[in-house]
C-alpha cells in the first residue's frame, strides 16, 4: 500500500489508483460527476479539483483533477485548500447556470448525485442572472424518461451506452452549452442495458419510466436485497416497494457478479408481480368453474385427492430451492420432477456434472471480463444470459489494456486507453447458428448448425490436445478456423470457453468442456462457463428429480393420483397433445403459482403463491452460486410462499409425517441437511436472527419528511409493520444500518452526504472491490482454482455428432430466445410487453420471396413471418421459443408447407 | 532584400506552379536530399538543429516533436503525418496563402516530414471553407502522384507516402491537434487527454505527428540549405522567416514573410502602411484571438516567441489584430468571447458553461444592462479559467487571454459602459 496525505492526514492508497478513488476510499467527501468506478476517468466535469504539492517543501502546489492524477506513494494533497474549494463550487455554479432547479418535481430528487454534490461544494447562491437554454425531450420508449434540461453534460450516459454496452442509438449532439444527449429521433433505446442510464445519470435526465408512474420518494420506499429471476445469471438487485406493490428494481452491487449493471429484462421485468393475472385466492373447480374457496376448504380438498393415489410433484426452474424442496418433501424424492422435459432436464444435469468435474476454472462474471481470448460455442449469450454478454463485451478490451500497461497509462484513464487501443481487440470467436450482438467485436464468426458448431469445438479441443478425439471429414474452412482458434486459445493467458443449452444439444457443452479441459492441462487459468436457461435451473440440477418425460410415463401407467405443479406452466414445456395425454391420465391437478397460466386454468385446485418480492428464498445461478432473495412485500393471507403451500398440503395429507418448518431458516436448514450438494446454502446470506448493533436492519431510509405520504395528516405510516419471520430486515425505518452491513442484506444505499446510488462507494472495501460486510451468496460449484493442484482431466466425450445434413421439405427449428418476449414472467411486465416484437422465423436465403412461411410441427400448423438471412446455413430456422409455438423450446424438424395447403 | 523561402514561388497572377515548374524554380531539392542522401534520423537532426518551432501557435520544437515517434520503418508500422490546415484562428490567413500560392511546397514538406518519422500516410486536415486551397491541393497531389513524388517507392528510396485531403466540418477546436485526430476518426471533435501523446498513440491509436502548414513548408528548405542557413534567417534566437499578418484599420492589411523577430512596429508601419487617417492604434492581439492584448506602447516588441511572451502575450500565429481608438474594446471583447463560447466543444464544464456566461456578461455591459459586480464575475472567470490545467484543453485559457488583459487595459471603458448604461462610442455617434 502507498500512503498519501490528505489535508495532513496520512491515508492508505492502492498504488496505481487515482487520487479521487483514494480520497473516496479514505472516506473523504470529494465531489465528482464524470468519473464512474466502472467507466474510469475522462476529466470532463472538472469537479474533483484538489491542490497537489510536489513534496513537503512545496508551499504553492497546483490544482489538479483528482480523477486524472495517479496516487503515488507520499503524494500530498489538499481537498480543503481555499482555491480548490472555490474552483469546485464554481464548477457546480457553472453546471447550475442551465439546470432547471426543478428538484421538487424531479423523480431524482432526494437521491440525486447532483443535489448531493451541490450541497457538498457549498454552492448556494445563484449569481448567473441570464436566461437558461432549454431542450426538447425525446420519447425513448417504455423504459427511460428523458428530461434534457436537467443535463449537466457529464457524458456518463454515452460513455456507458456506447463505449461500455456497445449501443449506437444514443449520442452526444451539438456543442458548447447546447450539448444534447439523445437519439437521432424519438424511439425506444435499442440497447438491452438502457435502464442503467437511470443509475449512471447523476441527475434526473434519464429516470425510470415505469417507476415514475408509481412514484415515491426514496425515503418512502422499502427496499430488500433480491436476486433477478429472469435468467440464470443471478444478478443481485434491490427491489423497492411501497404499500402493496413493487415499484422498481435497482442494481445491487456484487463485485463478482453483476457489479454495477443490470439488463433491461431484469430491471423492468418485475411488473409481473402486479399483473392482472396474479392469483390472490385459492381456486377450486366447482361445477367445472374455478371458484374462490377458503384456505381450509382448499386443504381439505387436497386431503381427499391425496387418498386417490400417489402424489407426484412437478417443480420448476423458476421457483426457489425452498419451494422445490418442499414439494419434493410432499411427494417424496422418487416422485419429484424437476419440471424440465428432455432435452433440458438432461442438459441441466450434464452442465452441473461438467462444471463439477472440469479441470478448468468456473469463472464469475467479473472473471469473464478479464478473459483475454474467448470462444462462444453455440450460445447467443446476450439474450440467454444478457449480463454475461455484457461481461464478454468487456473481455475484448484486454488487448487495449496490455497496450496501455506497456505505455504506463493506468487502466482507469479510460479515454486514453481507448485511444491507444482503438484498433486492438482481444480475440473473441462467436460460433452460433445466427447473428448475435457480439458479432461486431468478434475476430471471427462461424455460422453453422449446432451439430457442426459442436464439431468445430471438438476439432479445437483436438487441435489443443491431440489425445482428444479427432473430428473426421471437417470441411477445410472449418478445419482452418479450428486450428486458428486452438492456437489463439493456447496462446492466451486467460482463455475462456462459453457454451450453454440454448440449442438443446449435449454436444455443445461437451465440446466446450473438452476444449477447456485440453487448455487446463497447460493453463490453470483456463475457464469454462456454461449457461442454463432459468434462475433456478442449476438448483434443480443439483437437487435432481424425474424429467417430465418420466412423469408422463408414470402417468401412462396409472401411477399418479394427484399431480402438484409448483410455479411451472407446463403448456410451455409439453406440446398440447403430450400435455392433454398427461392430464387425462391424472385424476387430480393442483397448481401452486403466483400467476394464472393456461395450466392453472385446467387445475382442480389452484393455490396462490408469493412472488419473489413477497417471500424469501434461495436460487442457484448458472455458475452455481446460491443466493438469497428477501421479502420486501408483506401480503395478506392466503398469499404465501410456495414452500409454505407445499408444507401445508403435506400436513393436510398426513399430519403425522409432514415437515413442520415455520420459517425460511428452518427449510434452508432442512435442505442443507438432506442434499449434500446444497449443504452450504445456509451461508448464502445471514439468517433472520442476524442483528447489527443488537438490532434488526431497517429496510426503509429514515423518513426525512412525512409530507410526501398521501395520508400524512392521519399517519405517515403506510400500514402497520407486519411480522417478518423470514428476514433479518425490519419492515420499517427503525433499525440498524451502516456501511458494514452484509452485501446479502443491503436494502438501499445511503451514506451521510451521499443520498444517491453513488453512496455505494462507502460500502466497498475499495472502489470496485468486495463489500465491506462481505459479498452475497455462496458458490456451490467452485471450479478449479489457480492455487490448487490440477484436477485430473476426465475422459473426453467421444460422441462427436455427425455433420448436419439439411432435409428436403423439412427445416430444423432451433430455439432463438429474445431479450424481450420469450422469458415467461418478464413478458407479463407492461414495459417489457411493450417491447416485444412479433415472432418471426429467420432462415437462410431460400430464394423465396414470400413474406411468411407455413410450418407443421407435432400436428400444429403455424404461419410465421420470415426473415431471410444469407449468412444463415441452409436447412435450419431460428424460431423464438414459446411465442408462435408455445411449447417449442428445443430443436425440432418441422415440415415446410406450401402456402394455402391446410391438409393435415 | 532578405530571403523569403516560403513565398518565393508565390505569384498570385500566375497561380501555383506545377511539378515541373516547381522543380525548375528550385523545388524538390529538400525531398531529393532527404530521400536519397539522408537517414530519417539525419532529417530529424537537421530540423532539430535548425530550431524550427511550430508555427501554429504553441511554438513546440518541430524536431523534438518528431523525435518522440517510435523508430520503426513505415513499411512495418502504420504511422501518420498530418498537416494541420484548419486555419480557424480569427485574423489569421497565412496557411491559406501558402496552400493557395504553392501547394507543392506543403506536399514536399510532408514527404520529407513523413520520411523523417517514417509515416506512410499523410493527411491534410483542411478548413472546410478553403475551397480554392482544396482545389489546388487536390490538383497538386494528383500531379505529384503522376510524377512519382507521391506513391510507392519515391525516388527509388523504398519509402512510400501518399496524401489524403480531409475537409473539416468546421469547428475551431479541430485546430487543437488531439481534437483534430478525434474528428479525423469521424467522432465528435473533442480534445484527448495526454498521455498518450499523438506521437505514440494518435490517429486510430497509431503514432501520428500533427504539424502546422507553415511549419511543414519550412522543412524542405531546411533540409536543402542546412540548419545554419535557417537559423541565420532569424533576427534573434529563433531561426527562419515567419509569415506575419496585420488586420484592423491599417492602410494595407495583409500577410508578409519576414525574418523571425521583426519588430512589430516595422510590420505595422512599413508593411501594413501604418494606421489609416483618423485612427490611432490603441491595443493589439499579436498572434490571433487567443493571445493577450498588448497596448500601443508595446509595439517595439520583436515578433519572436520569447520576446512576445516577455511582453505579456504570445506570438501565437504571428497574425496580429489591431484595435483602434474609434472601436469599442468591449464590443471587440464581446465579439471574441462570442466566438470562443460558441466554439467550446462542450466537453468540460468550466469552458462549456463558463464561456457563455462571460459572453452574456459582456453583451449586457455593451448594451447598457451591466452592473458593477459583473466586472468581478468577469475577473473570476479570467482567474478560474485562465491557468492551464483547470480546463481540459487550452481553449478556455486562450479565451481568457484577451479578457484578462482587456479587463486591465480597458478598465475605464468597462466602468464607463456600466455607469453610462451603454457604449460611450455609440452614444456619441
From TrEMBL, chain A:
SUPFAM superfamilies referenced in this protein's UniProt entry, alphabetically: 2Fe-2S ferredoxin-like, 4Fe-4S ferredoxins, Formate dehydrogenase/DMSO reductase, domains 1-3
2Fe-2S ferredoxin-type domain span: 1-83
Subunit: Composed of 13 different subunits. Subunits NuoCD, E, F, and G constitute the peripheral sector of the complex.
Single GO term (MF): NADH dehydrogenase activity
Lineage: Bacteria, Pseudomonadati, Pseudomonadota, Alphaproteobacteria, Acetobacterales
Name this protein carries in UniProt: NADH-quinone oxidoreductase subunit G
Family as reported in the entry's similarity comment: Belongs to the complex I 75 kDa subunit family.
GO cellular component: membrane
Gene designation: nuoG
Pfam families reported for this sequence: Fer2_4, Fer4_Nqo3, Molybdop_Fe4S4, Molybdopterin, NADH-G_4Fe-4S_3
GO process annotations (BP): ATP synthesis coupled electron transport
Catalytic activity: a quinone + NADH + 5 H(+)(in) = a quinol + NAD(+) + 4 H(+)(out)
4Fe-4S His(Cys)3-ligated-type domain span: 83-122
Automatic annotation (TrEMBL), chain B:
Transmembrane is among the record's keywords: no
Pfam family, one: SLBB
A GO molecular-function annotation: NADH dehydrogenase (ubiquinone) activity
Key word Nucleotide-binding present: no
Gene3D superfamilies for the chain: 3.10.20.600, NADH-ubiquinone oxidoreductase 51kDa subunit (3.40.50.11540), NADH-ubiquinone oxidoreductase 51kDa subunit, iron-sulphur binding domain (1.20.1440.230)
Record-linked SMART domains: NADH_4Fe-4S
Residue intervals of the NADH-ubiquinone oxidoreductase 51kDa subunit iron-sulphur binding domain: 330-375
Key words of the record: 4Fe-4S, Iron, Iron-sulfur, Metal-binding
PANTHER family in the cross-refs: NADH-QUINONE OXIDOREDUCTASE SUBUNIT F
Protein family membership: Belongs to the complex I 51 kDa subunit family.
Name of the featured protein: NADH-quinone oxidoreductase subunit NuoF
Biological source species: Gluconacetobacter johannae
Amino acid at each position: 500500500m502507498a500512503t498519501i496525505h490528505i489535508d495532513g492526514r496520512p491515508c492508505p492508497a492502492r498504488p496505481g489508483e487515482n487520487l479521487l478513488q483514494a480520497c473516496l476510499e479514505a472516506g473523504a467527501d470529494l465531489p465528482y460527476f464524470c468519473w464512474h468506478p466502472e467507466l474510469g476517468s475522462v476529466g470532463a466535469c472538472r469537479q474533483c479539483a484538489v491542490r497537489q504539492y510536489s513534496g513537503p517543501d512545496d508551499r504553492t502546489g497546483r490544482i489538479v483533477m483528482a480523477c486524472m492524477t495517479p496516487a503515488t506513494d507520499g503524494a500530498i494533497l489538499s481537498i480543503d485548500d481555499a482555491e480548490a474549494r472555490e474552483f469546485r463550487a464554481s464548477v457546480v455554479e457553472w453546471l447550475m447556470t442551465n439546470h432547471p432547479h426543478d428538484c421538487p418535481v424531479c423523480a431524482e430528487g432526494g437521491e440525486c448525485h447532483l443535489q448531493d454534490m451541490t450541497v457538498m461544494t457549498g454552492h448556494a447562491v445563484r449569481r448567473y442572472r441570464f436566461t437558461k437554454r432549454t431542450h426538447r425531450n425525446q420519447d425513448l420508449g417504455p423504459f427511460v424518461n428523458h428530461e434534457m434540461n436537467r443535463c449537466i453534460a457529464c457524458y456518463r450516459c454515452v460513455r456507458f451506452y456506447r463505449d461500455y454496452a456497445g449501443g449506437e442509438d444514443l449520442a452526444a449532439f451539438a456543442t458548447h452549452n447546447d450539448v444534447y444527449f439523445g437519439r437521432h429521433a424519438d424511439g425506444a433505446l435499442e440497447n438491452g442495458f438502457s435502464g442503467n442510464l437511470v443509475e449512471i445519470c447523476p441527475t434526473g435526465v434519464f429516470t425510470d419510466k415505469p417507476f415514475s408512474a408509481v412514484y415515491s420518494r426514496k425515503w418512502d420506499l422499502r427496499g430488500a436485497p433480491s436476486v433477478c429471476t429472469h435468467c440464470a445469471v443471478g444478478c443481485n438487485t434491490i427491489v423497492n416497494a411501497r404499500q402493496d406493490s413493487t415499484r422498481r428494481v435497482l442494481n445491487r452491487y456484487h463485485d463478482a457478479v453483476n457489479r454495477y449493471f443490470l439488463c433491461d429484462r431484469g430491471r423492468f421485468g418485475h411488473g409481473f408481480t402486479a399483473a392482472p393475472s396474479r392469483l390472490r385466492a385459492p381456486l377450486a373447480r366447482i361445477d367445472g368453474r374455478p371458484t374462490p374457496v377458503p384456505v381450509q376448504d382448499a386443504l381439505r380438498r387436497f386431503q381427499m385427492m391425496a387418498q386417490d393415489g400417489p402424489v407426484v410433484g412437478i417443480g420448476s426452474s423458476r421457483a426457489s430451492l425452498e419451494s422445490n424442496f418442499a414439494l419434493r418433501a410432499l411427494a417424496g424424492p422418487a416422485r419429484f420432477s424437476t419440471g424440465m422435459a428432455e432435452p433440458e432436464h438432461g442438459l441441466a444435469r450434464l452442465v452441473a456434472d461438467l462444471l463439477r468435474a472440469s479441470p478448468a476454472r468456473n469463472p464469475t462474471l467479473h472473471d469473464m471480463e478479464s478473459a483475454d481470448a474467448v470462444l462462444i460455442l453455440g450460445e447467443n449469450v446476450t439474450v440467454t444470459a444478457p449480463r454475461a454478454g455484457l461481461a464478454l463485451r468487456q473481455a475484448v478490451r484486454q488487448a487495449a489494456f496490455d497496450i496501455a500497461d506497456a505505455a504506463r497509462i493506468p487502466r482507469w484513464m479510460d479515454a486514453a486507453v481507448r485511444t491507444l487501443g482503438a484498433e486492438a481487440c482481444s480475440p473473441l470467436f462467436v460460433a452460433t447458428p445466427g447473428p448475435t450482438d457480439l458479432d461486431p467485436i468478434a475476430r471471427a464468426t462461424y455460422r453453422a448448425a449446432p451439430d457442426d458448431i459442436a464439431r468445430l469445438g471438438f476439432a479445437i479441443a483436438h487441435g489443443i490436445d491431440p489425445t482428444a478425439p479427432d473430428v473426421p471429414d471437417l470441411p477445410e474452412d472449418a478445419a482452418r478456423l479450428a486450428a486458428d482458434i486452438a492456437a489463439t486459445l493456447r496462446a492466451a493467458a486467460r482463455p475462456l470457453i462459453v457454451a450453454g443449452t440454448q440449442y438443446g444439444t449435449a454436444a455443445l457443452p461437451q465440446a466446450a468442456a473438452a476444449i477447456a479441459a485440453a487448455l487446463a492441462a497447460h493453463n490453470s487459468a483456463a475457464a469454462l462457463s456454461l449457461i442454463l436457461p432459468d434462475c433456478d435451473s442449476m438448483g434443480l440440477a443439483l437437487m435432481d428429480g424425474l424429467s417430465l418425460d418420466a412423469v408422463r410415463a408414470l402417468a401412462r401407467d396409472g401411477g399418479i393420483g394427484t399431480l402438484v405443479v409448483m410455479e411451472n406452466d407446463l403448456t410451455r414445456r409439453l406440446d398440447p397433445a403430450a400435455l392433454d395425454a398427461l392430464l387425462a391420465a391424472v385424476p387430480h391437478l393442483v397448481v401452486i403459482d403466483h400467476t394464472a397460466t393456461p395450466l392453472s386454468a385446467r387445475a382442480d385446485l389452484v393455490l396462490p403463491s408469493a412472488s419473489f418480492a413477497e417471500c424469501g428464498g434461495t436460487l442457484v445461478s448458472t455458475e452455481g452460486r446460491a443466493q438469497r432473495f428477501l421479502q420486501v412485500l408483506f401480503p395478506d393471507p392466503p398469499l404465501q410462499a410456495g414452500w409454505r403451500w407445499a408444507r401445508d398440503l403435506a400436513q393436510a395429507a398426513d399430519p403425522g409425517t409432514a415437515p413442520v418448518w415455520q420459517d425460511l431458516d428452518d427449510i434452508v436448514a432442512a435442505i442443507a441437511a438432506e442434499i449434500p450438494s446444497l449443504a452450504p446454502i445456509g451461508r448464502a446470506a445471514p439468517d433472520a436472527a442476524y442483528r447489527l448493533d443488537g438490532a434488526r436492519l431497517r429496510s426503509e431510509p429514515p423518513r426525512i419528511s412525512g409530507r410526501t405520504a398521501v395520508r400524512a395528516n392521519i399517519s405517515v405510516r403506510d400500514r402497520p409493520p407486519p411480522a417478518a419471520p423470514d428476514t433479518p430486515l425490519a419492515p420499517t425505518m427503525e433499525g440498524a444500518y451502516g456501511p458494514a452491513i452484509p452485501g446479502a442484506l443491503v436494502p438501499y444505499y445511503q451514506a451521510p452526504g451521499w443520498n444517491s446510488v453513488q453512496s455505494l462507494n462507502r460500502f466497498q472495501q475499495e472502489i470496485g472491490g468486495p463489500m465491506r460486510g462481505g459479498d452475497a451468496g455462496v458458490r456451490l460449484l467452485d471450479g478449479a482454482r489457480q492455487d490448487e493442484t490440477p484436477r485430473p482431466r476426465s475422459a473426453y466425450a467421444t460422441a462427436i455428432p455427425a455433420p448436419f445434413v439439411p432435409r428436403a421439405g423439412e427445416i430444423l427449428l432451433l430455439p432463438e430466445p429474445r431479450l424481450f418476449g420469450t422469458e415467461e414472467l418478464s413478458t407479463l411486465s407492461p414495459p417489457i410487453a411493450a417491447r416485444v416484437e412479433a415472432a418471426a422465423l429467420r432462415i437462410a436465403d431460400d430464394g423465396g420471396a414470400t413474406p411468411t412461411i407455413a410450418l407443421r410441427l407435432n400436428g400444429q400448423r403455424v404461419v410465421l413471418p420470415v426473415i431471410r438471412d444469407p449468412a444463415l446455413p441452409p436447412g435450419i430456422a431460428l424460431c423464438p421459443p414459446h411465442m408462435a409455438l408455445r411449447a417449442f423450446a428445443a430443436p425440432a424438424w418441422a415440415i415446410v408447407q406450401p402456402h394455402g395447403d391446410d391438409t393435415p | 532584400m532578405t530571403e523569403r523561402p516560403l513565398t518565393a514561388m508565390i505569384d498570385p497572377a500566375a497561380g501555383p506552379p506545377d511539378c515541373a515548374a516547381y522543380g525548375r524554380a528550385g523545388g524538390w531539392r529538400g525531398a531529393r536530399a532527404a530521400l536519397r542522401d539522408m537517414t530519417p534520423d539525419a532529417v530529424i537532426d537537421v530540423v532539430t538543429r535548425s530550431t524550427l518551432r511550430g508555427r501554429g501557435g504553441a511554438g513546440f520544437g518541430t524536431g523534438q516533436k518528431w523525435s518522440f515517434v517510435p523508430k520503426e520503418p513505415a513499411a512495418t508500422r502504420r504511422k501518420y503525418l498530418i498537416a494541420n490546415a484548419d486555419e480557424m484562428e480569427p485574423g489569421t490567413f497565412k496557411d491559406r496563402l501558402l496552400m493557395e500560392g504553392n501547394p507543392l511546397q506543403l506536399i514536399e514538406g510532408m514527404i520529407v516530414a513523413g520520411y523523417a518519422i517514417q509515416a506512410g500516410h499523410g493527411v491534410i486536415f483542411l478548413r472546410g471553407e478553403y475551397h480554392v486551397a482544396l482545389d489546388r491541393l487536390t490538383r497538386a497531389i494528383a500531379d505529384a502522384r503522376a510524377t512519382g513524388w507521391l506513391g510507392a517507392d519515391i525516388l527509388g528510396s523504398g519509402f512510400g507516402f501518399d496524401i489524403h485531403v480531409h475537409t473539416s466540418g468546421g469547428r475551431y477546436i479541430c485546430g487543437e491537434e488531439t481534437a483534430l485526430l478525434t474528428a479525423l476518426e469521424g467522432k465528435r471533435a473533442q480534445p484527448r487527454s495526454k498521455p498518450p501523446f499523438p506521437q505514440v498513440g494518435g490517429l486510430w491509436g497509431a503514432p501520428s505527428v500533427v504539424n502546422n502548414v507553415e511549419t511543414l513548408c519550412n522543412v524542405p528548405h531546411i533540409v536543402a540549405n542546412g540548419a545554419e542557413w535557417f537559423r541565420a534567417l532569424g533576427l534573434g534566437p529563433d531561426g527562419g522567416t515567419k509569415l506575419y499578418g496585420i488586420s484592423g484599420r491599417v492602410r494595407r492589411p495583409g500577410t508578409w514573410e519576414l525574418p523571425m523577430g521583426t519588430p512589430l512596429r516595422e510590420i505595422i508601419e512599413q508593411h501594413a502602411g501604418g494606421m489609416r487617417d483618423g485612427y490611432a492604434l490603441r491595443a493589439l492581439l499579436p498572434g490571433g484571438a487567443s493571445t493577450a492584448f498588448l497596448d500601443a506602447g508595446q509595439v517595439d516588441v520583436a515578433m519572436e516567441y520569447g520576446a512576445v511572451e516577455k511582453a505579456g502575450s504570445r506570438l501565437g500565429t504571428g497574425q496580429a489584430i489591431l484595435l483602434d481608438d474609434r472601436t469599442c474594446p468591449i464590443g471587440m471583447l464581446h465579439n471574441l468571447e462570442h466566438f470562443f463560447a460558441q466554439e467550446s466543444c462542450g466537453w468540460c464544464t468550466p469552458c462549456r458553461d463558463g464561456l457563455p456566461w462571460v459572453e452574456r456578461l459582456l453583451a449586457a455591459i455593451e448594451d447598457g444592462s451591466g452592473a458593477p459586480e459583473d466586472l468581478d464575475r468577469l475577473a473570476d472567470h479570467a482567474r478560474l479559467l485562465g491557468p492551464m490545467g483547470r480546463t481540459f484543453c487550452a481553449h478556455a485559457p486562450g479565451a481568457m487571454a484577451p479578457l484578462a488583459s482587456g479587463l486591465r487595459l480597458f478598465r475605464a471603458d468597462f466602468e464607463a459602459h456600466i455607469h453610462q448604461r451603454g457604449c460611450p462610442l455609440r452614444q456619441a455617434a
